[in-house]
Amino acid sequence: MICFSIIPGAPVATISVVAGICFGKGLGAVLNIIGITLGNLIAQRFFGRVAARRDQQPSKLVTAIGKMRHPLLGIVIGYTIPFIPTSLVSLAAIETAVTPRQLAAATLLGSMPTAIIYAWGGDELIKVHFKNALMLVGLLVLLLGLLWLIHHDRQRAVDLDH
After folding, report:
1. What is the DSSP string of 75-126?
2. Is 27:54 a contact under the CB 8 Å cutoff?
3. pLDDT per residue over 113-160, tens digit each?
4. Are 80 and 110 in contact (CB under 8 A)?
5. What is the CB-side half-sphere exposure of residue 31 using CA atoms within 13 A?
6. Which of 96, 90, 136 is nearest to 113 (CA)?
7. C-beta separation of 69 from 100 below 8 A
8. E strand or H helix at 132, and its extent?
9. I need a labelling partner for 133 at 20 to 30 A (CA). Which of 18, 25, 142, 147 fits?
10. Could you tell me if residue 160 is left (phi over 0), alpha (psi between -120 and 50 degrees) or otherwise beta?
11. Quick one: CA dihedral 97, 101, 103, 105, positive or negative?
C-alpha cells in the first residue's frame, strides 16, 4: 500500500478495496490508513527534494492549495477526495509554510476517510450488501462537494487579493 501511494498513477483505490475484501472493514481500514498515510508522507519528502530541481510551472491544483487562506484544510481535502491526484497534493503540501507535524496531521486526517471508505466498500461488496455500498457511493458524492469548497475558498482568496 505504501508503494502504491508513492507512485503517481498507481491504483491505490483498487489495492485498498482488496484490503477491505481480504481483511474486512476494521483491519482493512487500519492497514489502508497506515499504508496510504505513510506513502503520502514519503511522497512529500521525495517531491520536496525533486521540486527544488524542477523548472516547470506548478499545476493549478498546487497553486490553488498554496493560495488558500487555510492550506492545511486544502491538504486534508486534497487527500480526502479520491478524484484528486495525491501526487499533486503532495507537491502542494511541501510548498506550504506549515510545520512538519502539522503537515503529518493533515496528511493523516485527509487519508483516513478514503482509506476507510475503500476498506468498507470492499467488505460490503464481498458480502453483497449493495445498500451499504450505495451509502458509500453517497459519501463519495459528498466528497465531490468538498471540491466545490476548495474552489469557493480559492475564489475568496483571489477576491481578497484584488
Report:
1. HHHHHH-TTS-HHHHHHHHHTS---HHHHHHHHHHHHHHHHHHHHHHHHHHH
2. no
3. 989 988 888 877 777 766 766 776 777 777 777 777 777 776 776 676
4. yes
5. 20
6. 136
7. no
8. helix 130-161
9. 147
10. alpha
11. negative
Contact, 35 vs 13, CB < 8 A? no
Distance CA 140, CA 98 (A): 28
Q: Which of 36-40, 44-48, 124-128 has the lowest mean pLDDT?
A: 124-128
Instruction: Count CB atoms within 10 A of the CB of residue 69.
Output: 11
Distances, alpha carbon 70 to alpha carbons 60, 79, 96, 135, in Å: 17, 15, 10, 30
Determine contact, residues 30/42, Cβ cutoff 8 Å.
Answer: no
Residue with cell 492550506: 71
Quickly list DSSP for 44-78.
HHHHHHHHTT--SPPPHHHHHHHHSSSHHHHHHHH
